[in-house]
Amino acid sequence: MKLLISTRNEHKLKEIRQILSLPGIEILDLSAFPQAPEVEEDADTFEGNAIKKAMVLSEITGLCTLADDSGLEVDALDGAPGVWSARYAGEPVSHAANNRKLLNALSEEEDRGAQFRCVIALVVPGEEPRTVAGICRGRISAVPHGEAGFGYDPVFIPDGETRTFAQMTDDEKNAISHRGRAIAAAHAAWASILSVG
């Protein structure tokens, strides 16, 4: 069975492939469909964006399609940057600029609680979209640490840890990350649909 992962983000695809290694499933990404459009993520929720991407790309390719949307929600910023996480500091997208803006916004804040949220949508042609979610609670560090990962990984310390995501190995991060938890939930919820035992 072919399963399209609706991303061109190599970091995201690597994480998903590492966690969603399933027998009998051939995982494709958008590099296999160069004609596929860039789906505008204009919904005001992660769920809305994930469903929209999965539906549009499943309709174009005719394949079962899995799409996700995720981001960082900071308590002291009323859940910002939220769905705007990737473009928090504006265009062009810059992880370093996003992290600088976030740390500046929190410079006077004592509450540094935050969570990463990931929503995954699955669209099987002819059926209604399905979604699952994963959350990883943690806090924002005072300064960036680590070289691994991407996005806000250098400033996010998950609960129970003293290291940021960017200081962890892929396996360590995937075991506790929002995306790891969402993919595990997807596997549990959709194993029979994907014909995986």
Textual characterization of the structure:
- The protein is of the alpha/beta class and 197 residues long.
- It has a single domain, classed as Alpha-Beta Complex (Maf protein).
- It has helices at residues 10-19, 46-61, 95-105, 170-176, 178-190, and strands at 2-5, 26-29, 64-74, 113-123, 130-140, 156-158.
- Helix 4 packs across helix 5.
- The longest helix is centred in the first third of the chain and has 16 residues, at 46-61.
- The chain is globular, with a radius of gyration of 17 Å.
Q: Strand order across the biggest sheet?
A: 2-1-3-4-5-6
**Per the principal axes of the C-alpha atoms, what is the gross shape?**
globular
- Overall mean pLDDT stands at 91
By secondary-structure content and strand pairing, the structural class works out as alpha/beta
Estimated share of beta-strand residues: 15-25%
Query: Tally of extended strands?
Result: 6
- Runs in which pLDDT lies below 50 for 5 or more consecutive residues are none
Helix content: 25-40%
Major sheet details: 6 strands, mixed
How many distinct folded domains? Answer: 1
Number of helices: 5
Summary keywords:
197 residues; alpha/beta; 6-stranded mixed β-sheet; 5 helices
Could you provide a short overview of the structure?
This protein has helices at 10-19, 46-61, 95-105, 170-176, 178-190, and strands spanning 2-5, 26-29, 64-74, 113-123, 130-140, 156-158. By secondary structure, the protein is α/β, with parallel strands linked by helices.
